[in-house]
TrEMBL record:
InterPro entries: Calcineurin-like_PHP (IPR004843), Metallo-depent_PP-like (IPR029052), PP1_catalytic_subunit (IPR050341), Ser/Thr-sp_prot-phosphatase (IPR006186). PANTHER family: SERINE/THREONINE PROTEIN PHOSPHATASE (PTHR11668), SERINE_THREONINE-PROTEIN PHOSPHATASE PP1-DELTA-RELATED (PTHR11668:SF492). This is SER_THR_PHOSPHATASE domain-containing protein. GO terms for molecular function: protein serine/threonine phosphatase activity. GO terms for cellular component: cytoplasm; nucleus. It comes from Heligmosomoides polygyrus (Parasitic roundworm).
């Protein structure tokens, strides 16, 4: 399974986030498959890096793996790779999706009521042939419905 995908050369998708090692799209195309990425590596960053509104540049991630990166990194990466959007997951966001860096990055989280600890919505993103992104939001089920289904 690839660590990332590129939609029409304009939307870069991954589970985690960006890597300070990423300088060109061809690096992503040339990542070996299958792989168990070593730590540290670009593969680990694609899986575990996170955006952080309070960070400029790169900082160590408090998760203990990879980095957090700022809005400046997102804007620079989009320019360098000639892409319009970075779509990623890996973090709970209240409304199921959340933009970052002037809508150059979107976090999409598709698990409502995550781990029974959050009252978050889930979301999916649909990309049209014209690369217009639309989002569907999914409300978490009520506690009564979860109990009735045995998922209390």
């Amino acid at each position: 399974m690839p660590l990332c995908g590129l939609i029409a050369g304009r939307i870069l998708c991954m589970h985690g986030g960006l890597s300070p090692q990423l300088a060109a799209i061809d690096q992503l195309r040339n990542l070996p498959r299958p792989q168990d990425p070593p730590n540290p590596s670009m593969g680990i960053d694609l899986l575990w890096a996170d955006p952080d509104q309070w960070v400029k540049g790169w900082q160590a991630n408090t998760r203990g793996v990879s980095y957090v990166f700022g809005q400046d990194v997102v804007v620079e990466t989009c320019q360098k790779l000639n892409i319009d959007l970075i779509a990623r997951a890996h973090q709970v966001v209240q409304d199921g999706y959340e933009f970052f860096a002037s809508k150059k990055l979107v976090t999409i989280f598709s698990a409502p009521h995550y781990c029974g600890q959050f009252d978050n919505f889930a979301a999916t993103m649909k990309v049209s042939e014209d690369l217009i992104c639309n989002f569907a939001m999914y409300k978490p089920t009520s506690k009564a419905a979860r109990v009735a289904a045995g998922n209390g």
